[in-house]
Predict the 3D structure of the following.
Amino acid sequence: MASFPPSTSRISCHDHKKTRRRYRSKRKPVNFFFYLASAVAIVSTLMVITRSNAVHALLYLVVSFLAIAVIFFVLGAPFIAALEVIIYAGAIMVLFVFVVMMLNPGRPTARRNRGMILRVWTGPSFLALILFVEFLIVLSGRSHALASRPVTPKDVGLSLFGPYLLGVELAAMLLLSGIVGALHLGQRKKSSAHRFFENGGPS
Amino acid sequence: MTSVSAESALVVAGILFVLGLVGVMVRRNILFVLMSLEIMLNAAGLAFVVGGARWMRPDGQVIFIFILAVAAAEVSVGLALFLRFFHHFRTLNSDEASALKG
């Protein structure tokens, strides 16, 4: 099994020794954190594809994204972990929730009783609590990392706006086309208030 | 031999991708199909980030940002299509739209 190398040639010899010592001591906990976050991600994804209610599935999907964000943080990609929480679990999931609220495809609310509500929110909140505790422990121990040195946002930015600049502009055009497409698909046919106003109204 | 092996992280990404694929194939509700597509895109991004962490290069994270942009565009257009579908067929079952017309 190939592992992440303990250090790169870019850091000095002193750092090399220090990181190697730190890794030897922190090895088991980091492994454990990775596997715990992976288990939470897989369990919540399983719950997503087996739910019947859309909002419950969305709750588990948010937990799944948070678990993957913790995996990113443990893997040494803190910038991507923040983006995962902000954009995936924040923006895209809010879009889903808005659409579900507009359509209301769920069952009527009269059937709910207190016990069912209790059972619904305990699952995702328990998984999220596991993730939160794990994240706090990882943060307090400062044991980032599987990779001996996390890839910082500065590296990502320099690479993004250096050799990948063309990709950034293509992504901008893709997002613009997404906006235009959503606008075109989302507009409904205008219904006139009276047939007098049809065919351009009075002329 | 320091830490989590790249293989185990890639296995996690593969499991998540297969779960998303099963969701796309099994569920007939269009909303669940869109959610499963999100899971698959996320698993692909996880594989890219694992590769980037394995060689300690920022390229994997850059590709993940591109995947994020693609997912955002896909979700906006997909949800607009979903709304049109629901207003037209008055159902969420994707089998209703299996016949083409015109």
Remarks:
- Chain B has a mean pLDDT of 88.
- DSSP finds three helices and no strands in chain B.
- The first helix of chain B runs from residue 6 to 26.
- The radius of gyration of chain B is 17 Å.
